[in-house]
Design a protein that fits this description.
Helices cover 39% and strands 18% of the residues. By secondary structure, the chain is α/β, with parallel strands linked by helices. Helix 2 links the parallel strand 1 and strand 2. The N terminus is likely disordered.
């Protein structure tokens, strides 16, 4: 999701040509000992856990990162006849219908899927995708700023449009950013098909700032993040994740007693991320083994402190930093994938003309 600020992941530069060639091979070349993962650029796994997968499965893992989630999904659709890899990770519930409608994945029922919570299995009849993690897109606030100005931080969508919070919020472009789109969908879930546009008119009148992506919003514009403070960010409210406060604690040079940032829990939208076996994968056996690995307890427990998301497997332990500094929202906004599919593109178009012009 957004761990790139905190975790650098090295990826071999020669991978695109390597994994894109040889499309004339059989669809299921089981003799291939390499499995290639295509992902957005927030993929991360501990070296030990990756080695365990390679040792247990006999496959070497190669990773091809392809920009943010929206870019990666679009590129995977464009290259689906000759895919760059075997497994795609990082399509979330906001973009799921686009991937499924374009026939991106072939069905596979992962070993261990019975341990994944039913509420995360949004394609459970066809098993074209496997849930891997979830998180909440929420407004974060800079505790020190609100304390200094003797102002209570906002708690709800409605609060953000109040005059007290004028010129304080920065969000991401809903057309180019996954959290930006999630925040738009959250407002549509809160205010309905008609009401969300009036809400955004109020936010615009209240001085909301829109930037292209999460990195810019959180690490440059937001006054509460380590990066934002260094960059002179002057917005004490940002659209980010419920797991951002624990990241601020864990990656601080000197660990603070409490997180410097908080979460407006009435502004959250639940994001679920999936992996799928690409339709024309060359190494389907390896791809299946890797998807099984993604829902293994070992990977699920390794994932939170690498990608700052929550496990979907029942019984997988969550780090104490998460429960202490960034618990998942109790009542996040949600929206059925079919409803997102029917409205997303038109809503983004309307949002763009309403907010950016």
């Amino acid at each position: 999701m957004h761990n790139k600020t905190f975790v650098a992941v090295a990826v071999g530069l020669g991978l695109i040509s390597l994994s894109a060639c040889g499309s004339g091979e059989s669809k299921s070349s089981g003799d291939s000992r390499t499995v290639t993962l295509v992902s957005h650029n927030s993929w991360a796994v501990s070296k030990k856990v990756q080695r365990d997968f390679e040792k247990q499965s006999g496959y070497k893992l190669r990773v091809l990162e392809d920009g943010d989630a929206g870019q990666a999904v679009n590129k995977a659709i464009l290259t689906k006849d000759h895919p760059q890899g075997d497994v795609f990770f990082g399509v979330d519930n906001t973009l799921l219908s686009r991937a499924l409608d374009n026939g991106l994945f072939q069905p596979y029922t992962a070993k261990g899927l019975d341990k994944v919570g039913a509420s995360y299995q949004l394609d459970k009849d066809k098993h074209r995708v496997t849930p891997v993690d979830y998180g909440d897109i929420c407004v974060n606030y800079d505790k020190a700023w609100f304390s200094k100005h003797k102002l209570a931080p906002p708690r709800t969508f409605a609060d953000l449009a109040e005059p007290a919070y004028k010129n304080l919020l920065v969000t991401e472009n809903a057309a180019t950013s996954s959290p930006g789109l999630g925040f738009l969908l959250g407002s549509a879930a809160e205010y309905g098909d008609q009401g969300w546009q009036d809400y955004w008119k109020k936010l615009k009148a209240n001085g909301v700032k829109v930037v292209d992506g999460w990195e810019q919003a959180y690490s440059q514009e937001f006054s509460g993040s380590t990066g934002g403070r260094k960059a002179g960010g002057d917005r004490p409210l940002v659209v980010s994740y419920a797991s951002s406060p624990p990241a601020e604690v864990i990656y601080a040079k000197k660990r603070p007693g409490t997180a410097p940032t908080g979460v407006a829990t009435g502004t959250c939208f639940r994001q679920i991320e999936f992996a799928g076996l690409l339709d024309n994968a060359r190494n389907t056996k390896g791809g299946k083994a890797f998807i099984d690995f993604l829902v293994s307890k070992e990977f699920q427990e390794d994932m939170p402190l690498n990608m700052y998301v929550y496990p979907v497997v029942r019984g997988a332990a969550v780090p104490t930093e998460f429960t202490e500094y960034g618990p998942a929202a109790e009542h996040p906004e949600t929206m059925a994938p079919g409803k997102i599919a029917a409205n997303r593109d038109q809503w983004v178009k309307s949002w763009t003309s309403l907010v950016l012009r």
